[in-house]
């Protein structure tokens, strides 16, 4: 069995209504940053992603997805000019060998992360989907079997522009079966964030609702310690990305000073960077991101964390069906799995062309048993949102 062709699709789903300009500085018509925050991440008005389809000389195919919420053309160019031609003619069942080969080729050039590994992740996910279909097994069985057939989820990002609205939405999520939520920084400063967190805990104690807080790397050192101590008093499950993403020493010191676990992982790519964060005590919960790590590397990261007795809670944000499914299979197969990040809006956006076999049941995801990932893409329906498609073949 050999890879005969690689198809790459850049997908951009427009918003239901135009983005409100307030508080935003548009770099282009599609991309913006926050006007008042020097650490503002760049965002797109569209839901953007990149899908990769591998097809073998025997007609077996597999789907992968790259986390590309902005600048998907960059990873697509890496695939077109370099990685896709490299894997043509290779046996896709040798997924770990191919992962190491792809990474090794550019290490000497100084590229061992960023867009390169993002592009590799899309290919790697497709390797596993194809492998599962070829062998008639779900991916979690190929990873060693599943420790659980249901994954406890937390709902990430509670909607609402005020404390009152957010409390109303937390009540709705509780009715839907969720017993854990993650609050993202309110964007109004430390006092507003603390008010919200304390209001939620005032309504629901820790036996009824697990609470997490994501600072998106925006806290100063004093803010992180104040919020971290408050989270400890509120019996929060973890404090995500409290400090600047480069500040490993700061995260380590903060982790020593507060009771709440410090969670890190979204910007990290390989076991080599995760090793530094875990070994130094800077990451007490690891959060690798499927669309930036791939199945092969994410499983290795989970095993690395297991050796340090650190729990594994995969990060998900703008993933669509393929990225979600891949994360679900790894979560089922990882012994140190803690909790699963659920983003319903991303799945709603791709529902017209993405058929997934996993399902949400009362705040838990039921792990699928279909061969491969259990996701099928309707390429014809997807074309309504495809801004670029190309095929590389032997």
Describe this protein's structure.
The chain is of the alpha/beta class. 40% of the residues lie in helices and 22% in strands. It is built from 13 helices and 18 strands. The protein has helices at residues 72-87, 95-107, 114-135, 139-142, 163-176, 190-203, 221-233, 248-257, 271-279, 290-307, 321-333, 344-349, 379-382, and strands at 3-13, 24-26, 31-34, 43-44, 47-56, 61-66, 150-156, 180-184, 210-214, 238-240, 261-264, 285-286, 340-342, 354-356, 359-361, 364-366, 375-377, 386-393. The strands form four sheets. Strands 7, 8, 9, 10, 11, 12, 13, 15 and 16 form a nine-stranded mixed beta sheet that branches. Helix 1 crosses helix 3 (114-135), helix 2 packs antiparallel against helix 3 and helix 3 crosses helix 10 (290-307). The longest helix has 22 residues, at 114-135. The two termini are 14 Å apart.
Q: Give the number of DSSP strands.
A: 18
Q: How confident is the prediction overall: mean pLDDT?
A: 93
Strand fraction band? 15-25%
Rg estimate, integer Å? 20 Å
Structural class: alpha/beta
Shape: globular
Percentage of residues assigned to helices: 25-40%
> Total helix count?
13
The profile of the biggest β sheet is:
9 strands, mixed
The N- and C-terminal alpha carbons lie at a distance of 14 Å
User: pLDDT under 50 segments (min length 5)?
Assistant: none
């Amino acid at each position: 069995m050999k890879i005969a062709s690689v198809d790459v699709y850049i997908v951009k789903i427009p918003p239901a209504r135009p983005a409100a300009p307030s508080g935003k500085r548009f770099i282009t018509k599609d991309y913006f940053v926050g006007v008042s925050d020097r650490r503002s991440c760049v965002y797109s008005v569209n839901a953007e992603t990149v899908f990769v389809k591998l097809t073998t000389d025997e007609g077996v195919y597999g789907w992968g997805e790259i986390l590309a919420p902005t600048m998907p053309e960059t990873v697509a160019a890496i695939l077109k000019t370099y990685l896709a031609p490299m894997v043509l003619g290779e046996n896709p069942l040798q997924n770990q060998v191919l992962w190491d080969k792809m990474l090794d080729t550019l290490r000497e050039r100084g590229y061992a992360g960023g867009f390169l590994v993002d592009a590799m992740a899309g290919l790697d996910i497709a390797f596993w989907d194809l492998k599962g279909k070829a062998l008639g097994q779900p991916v979690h069985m190929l990873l060693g079997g599943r420790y659980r057939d249901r994954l406890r989820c937390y709902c990430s990002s509670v909607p609402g522009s005020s404390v009152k609205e957010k409390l109303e939405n937390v009540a709705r999520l509780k009715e839907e079966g969720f017993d854990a939520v993650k609050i993202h920084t309110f964007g109004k400063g430390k006092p507003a964030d603390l008010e919200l967190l304390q209001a939620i805990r005032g309504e629901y104690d820790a036996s009824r609702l697990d609470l997490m807080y994501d600072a998106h790397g925006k806290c100063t050192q004093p803010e992180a310690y104040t919020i971290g101590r408050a989270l400890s008093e509120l019996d929060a499950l973890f404090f995500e990305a409290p400090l600047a993403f480069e500040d490993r020493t700061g995260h380590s010191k903060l982790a020593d000073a507060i009771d709440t676990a410090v969670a890190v992982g979204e910007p990290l790519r390989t076991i080599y960077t995760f090793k530094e964060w875990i070994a130094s005590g800077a990451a007490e919960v690891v959060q690798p991101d499927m669309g930036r790590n791939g199945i092969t590397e994410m499983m290795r990261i989970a095993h690395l964390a297991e050796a340090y007795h650190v729990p594994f809670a995969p990060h998900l944000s703008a993933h669509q069906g393929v990225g979600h499914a891949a994360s679900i299979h790894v979560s089922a197969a990882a012994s140190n799995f803690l909790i699963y990040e659920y983003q319903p809006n991303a799945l709603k956006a791709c529902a017209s062309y993405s058929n997934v076999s996993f399902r949400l049941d009362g705040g838990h995801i039921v792990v699928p048993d279909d061969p491969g990932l259990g996701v099928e893409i309707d390429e014809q329906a997807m074309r309504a949102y495809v801004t670029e498609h190309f095929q590389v073949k032997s």
